[in-house]
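Lab notes, practical 5.
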Amino acid sequence: MDTAPIILAHEKPFRIGGATFMPASREVQLNGKRSVVEPRVMQLLVALHRASGSVVTKDELLQQCWSGRIVGEDAINRVVSRLRSVSEKQAGKQFRVETITKVGYRLVAAKNFAASLIRPGEGSGLPGLLGRREVMIGGAALSAAAVTSIGWTIQRRNRMPDEARVLIDDARNSLYQFTPDQIENAIGKLRRATQLAPDSGEAWGLLALAYANSSLCVPTDQRAHRFARSEGSRQRAFAIEAYQADALAAELGTRPVFRNWYGHEQRCRSALKRHPDHPVLHVALGHLLLEVGRFDEALPMFEASLRKTPLCVTSLICRINLLSGLGRFEEADAAVAQVFEMMPRHPAIWLNRAHYLSYAGSAAEAVAMIADVGNRPVGIPAWHFDLVAMQANAIASEDQGLIRKTLEHYAEAARRGMIFAESAAMFAAFVGRHDEAFRILNGLYLDPDFSIPDAYSTTEQGMYSLGDRRTDILFRKPLAVIRQDPRFARLTKAIGLNAYWERGRSWSKIVG
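Output from the prediction step:
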C-alpha cells in the first residue's frame, strides 16, 4: 500500500457509485450538486479509496493524513465521524466506513458500487483520446472549476460573522502582550469566536495557541488540562485547514526545548517553510536560535515578527537583548527608550529596562527609575522591586559589602523562581564573582538537587517555567566575562550544546 503523505492537489478525481470526488478542490459532486469537504476528511477518503477495500491501519492513516505526526486516537475518530457524515449528507450514502476493531478502517461501497478513477471521456461522450479542441474545452472547464473553488473559499472566509472576526483580531493582539490576564482574556474571546464561526481553522488554531501559552500561567497540577485543551483545539483546526499556522505554533509551544534544540529547530523551520510570513513562527525559531547562542541569526527572526506585529512584547524585549549581545549598543539604547516610551508600565518591559540600564553603564539611571514608585508597574511585589534596586545600587556604587549582600539576597530569591537564579548568575559574573556564577550555573543546568519552584518569577506575576531551563542567559552581555573561562566550555558540553553546534555546524555563529 502507498503510505506516502497525501497531497490533495496531486490526487486524481474518482467515483464511488453515483458520487464523484475531486480531491484537488475538495469537492463532492452528486446529481449535479457540488459541495466541499474539510481537507483532512478528503485525505482520509483518498487513503481508504487507495486501499481498494483493504483495511487501512491507524498507523498508515497517520502517515498518509497527518504526515506521520503523532495525534491522539480521538483526532482520528473525529475525522472518521466527519467522513461518515459526508457519506450521509453529501454523497448520497454511496459508501460507508467500516471500523475493524483494534486494527483500522476500510471503505465499503454501497449497493455493490465500484470505486474507480475517472478516465478521459467518461460520462461526457468524449473519446478517450482528446483532440486540441477538446483540450481547450477541458482547460476552460478546469479554469471555471478553479474559479468556483476560489470563489467558494472567498465566500467561506467572508461568511465569518463580523463579531467573530473582531474577537479573533482582538484576541491575537491580546496574546502579543503575553501577560496572564491578556492570555485568559484571549481564551474567552476565542471560545466565543469558535461558537460564532465553528468552521474557522484560524479561530480554532488561535485558541490552541492561547491554551498553549496559558500553560505558562498555571501551576503544574493545572497544566495537563491546558495541554489537553490546546491539543483538542489544534486538531479541530487541522481538520478544517491542514497545517494551520497558529495550530502549528501551538504545537511548537508545548514541546520542551532544553536539550532538544536540534529537533525543535527542524520543526520550527518546517513550520516556517509552510508559512514563511507568520510572526509567531518567526518568534519560535528566533527563541530557539537565541537559546543556542546564534544571535546573528535570531535577530532577523524577531525583526521579521515585529514587521507584522510591532507591539509583540516578546519580540521587542528579545530584540533589545540580541542587539546588546551583538555589541550594537547604540541601537539597543534606542530600542530600550522607544519600547519603554510606548509601554512604560508593562511589567516585563519595566524589569527589562531596569536590568538593561544596570548592565549598560547606566546603573544610576536604573536606581532613579526604580525609586519612582508612582510609575512602577502593578503585579510585582515590593520585595522584588527592592532586590532590583539593590542590584542597581551595588553595580553603581561598586561597594563590596553591598555586592555581597545582593548575592545573598539573590541566593535566597533563587528558591522562589527560575528568573532569580538566572539573575543571580548574571550578577555574580558581572561583578567578578566567577566561582559563584559557575556554582549557580552548574546547579541550574546539571544538579537535580538544585531545587527551583515551578514559578518562573513571582507568584504574583503568575508566570511558570514548565520545568524547562533557558540557556539564552549564557550568551547575554553580563556573562561575557566568563565565556573565556575553561569552565564555560565544560558546562556547554555537559548540557549538550556542543553536540548541537557540531551537528548543525554552527560553531562560527555563536556569540563569543
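Observations recorded by the TA: Confidence is low (pLDDT under 50) at residues 112-158. Residues 430 and 478 are 5 Å apart (CA to CA).
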